[in-house]
Amino acid sequence: MKFSELQLEPGVLNALDAMRFEECTPIQEQAIPMILKGRDLIAVAQTGTGKTAAFLLPILNDLSKGKHREDVINCIIMSPTRELALQIDQQLEGFSYFMSVSSVAIYGGNDGTLFEQQKKGLVLGADVAIATPGRLLAHISLGYVDLSHVSYFVLDEADRMLDMGFSDDIMQIVK
What we know:
Elements: H1 10-18, H2 26-36, H3 51-63, E1 75-78, H4 82-95, E2 103-106, H5 112-124, E3 128-131, H6 133-141, E4 152-155, H7 158-163, H8 167-174
Parallel strand pairs: 1-3, 1-4, 2-3
Enzyme class: hydrolase
EC number: 3.6.4.13
InterPro entries: DEAD/DEAH_box_helicase_dom, DEAD/DEAH_RhlB, DEAD_box_RNA_helicase, Helicase_ATP-bd, P-loop_NTPase, RNA-helicase_DEAD-box_CS, RNA_helicase_DEAD_Q_motif
């Protein structure tokens, strides 16, 4: 299936065209229409099959319609590692190039300057926060995060996060 056959907004299609993405992978073909319909989804696929695009594209499609508040966090994407959080953020930047969707990567293992940048993104209401559980909890406990307007909650590599012992942190965030 071609991306152009999906009901995606022009900004999403322009980004895909600029990156020369034409054909959906099987996981994208199955997941994107479900997410566009507002359905919850659990998906499993091999590394390198386009899982990240499978959840980012429909979320960006919805956010680009301008029906969400711009001063709040609308989507949380949980990641088990800072490397994966940064990778997701980079992909989001590419896919949202033709849209006014903002993101912030929230992860630990860095200096106070980066913590302040993350805080600023959270307080100002980046549309999408890509976060490791521990660092997001730190920001929550300090009162920098309002999750009351979150429309999308993604657990990327959920099995790995559970294996790494993040289940209690995730449950605390979801509350």
